[in-house]
């Protein structure tokens, strides 16, 4: 979550736009209603495993069971874990491209059935339909000329348009529970962007106004803003420790002290994943060079086809964009 909030509002909304592609096919599912197609029920036995390859080694966002712990059914009433549901929706919608929309909806339905009391399940499905409808409506907003670019006016129009759309799909309670934190963060970020892009302010005036925003920043927003800086500082310490010959055990101890043992374990897993990725990249680049040499006298289309075949043989569809980004930046 920290990395998400570390970006500017424009960057964050660009990242969100990647998720919106899933919603171009949503209308067909919404017409079908809440029933999960019979053919997709077979997905449910796998509810405890990774839904798609890119989810391997991750924990689904949105702990619905934790929300209901210690509460009686009468106390729960018609209430819903709105924020947790939104996180869970986004987690599984991120599988778009590896699974189709019907399969994703089926998996979300399985999570709802497995984690929520019966009295809350229909409400959660209704919230999912609203959420998908809202995301679909955002597609048109993202394409509007007035919301394009990173200028403060475009960013503000995008934000205001998003608020207006949400008022169409959600009740005030749903809106606040699902998006309240993001709104507070975005308002602060837009105010800072407005200061930075104001040509009439001197650098001293900008610093003064930013200091006022810092003082007024809600504690939760400040903690979220500072989290990436803390991680960067910690990882700089890790890099220095490794440069001095520090062992994995010493790195784990440093991270556990700064964060907690669970976070240190997850970072250690990410280290191993990154090392494995770099090994695969090195192997791929060696093979890529061989393919280019073999096809030196071939046409451009033949070389492209050979390279595409190599990529597909070494990487999953979900990994190809990361590979392309790596090749482009190097």
Task: Give a short overview.
By secondary structure, the protein is an all-alpha fold.
Q: What do you see in this structure?
A:
By secondary structure, this protein is mostly helical. Mean pLDDT is about 80; it is low at about 1-45 and about 70-75. The protein is globular, with a radius of gyration of 23 Å. Helix content is about 70%, strand content about 0%. The protein has two domains: about 1-195, no CATH class; about 245-330, no CATH class. It has helices at about 1-5, 10-20, 25-30, 65-70, 75, 80-95, 100-115, 120-145, 150-170, 170-195, 205-215, 220-245, 250-260, 260-295, 300-315, 320-330. The protein has 16 helices and no strands. Helix 6 (about 80-95) runs antiparallel to helix 7 (about 100-115) and helix 6 packs across helix 8.
Residues in helix, %: over 70%
Distance between the termini: 27 Å
Number of strands: 0
Rounded mean pLDDT is 81
Structural class: mainly alpha
* Order of helix and strand elements from N to C terminus: HHHHHHHHHHHHHHHH
The low-confidence runs, each spanning 5 or more residues with pLDDT under 50, are 1-47, 72-77
Largest sheet: none
């Amino acid at each position: 979550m920290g990395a998400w909030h570390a970006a500017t509002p424009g960057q964050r909304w660009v990242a969100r736009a990647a998720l919106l592609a899933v919603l171009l096919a949503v209308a067909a599912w919404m017409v079908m209603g809440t029933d999960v197609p019979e053919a997709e029920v077979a997905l449910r036995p796998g509810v405890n495993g990774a839904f798609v390859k890119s989810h391997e080694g991750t924990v689904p966002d949105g702990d619905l069971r934790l929300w209901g712990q210690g509460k009686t059914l009468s106390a729960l009433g018609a209430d819903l874990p709105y924020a947790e549901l939104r996180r869970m929706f986004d987690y599984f919608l991120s599988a778009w491209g590896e699974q189709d929309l019907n399969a994703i909806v089926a998996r979300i339905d399985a999570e709802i059935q497995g984690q929520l009391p019966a009295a809350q399940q229909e409400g959660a499905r209704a919230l999912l339909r609203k959420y998908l409808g809202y995301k679909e409506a955002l597609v048109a907003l993202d394409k509007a000329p007035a919301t394009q670019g990173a200028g403060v006016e475009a960013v503000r129009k995008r934000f205001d348009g998003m608020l207006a759309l949400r008022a169409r799909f959600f009740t005030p309670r749903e809106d606040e529970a699902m998006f309240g934190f993001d709104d507070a963060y975005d308002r602060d970020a837009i105010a800072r962007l407005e200061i930075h892009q104001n040509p009439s302010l001197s650098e001293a005036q900008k610093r003064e106004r930013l200091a006022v925003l810092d003082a007024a920043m809600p504690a939760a927003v400040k903690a979220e803003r500072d989290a990436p800086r803390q991680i960067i500082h910690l990882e700089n310490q890790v890099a220095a420790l490794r440069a001095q010959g520090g062992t994995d055990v010493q790195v784990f101890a440093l991270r556990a002290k700064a964060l907690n043992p669970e976070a240190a374990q997850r970072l250690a897993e990410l280290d191993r994943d990154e090392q494995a990725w770099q090994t695969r990249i090195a192997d791929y680049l060696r093979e890529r060079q061989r393919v280019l040499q073999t096809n030196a006298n071939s046409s451009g289309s033949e070389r492209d086809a050979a390279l595409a075949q190599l990529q597909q043989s070494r990487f999953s569809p979900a990994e190809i964009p990361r590979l392309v980004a790596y090749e482009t930046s190097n």
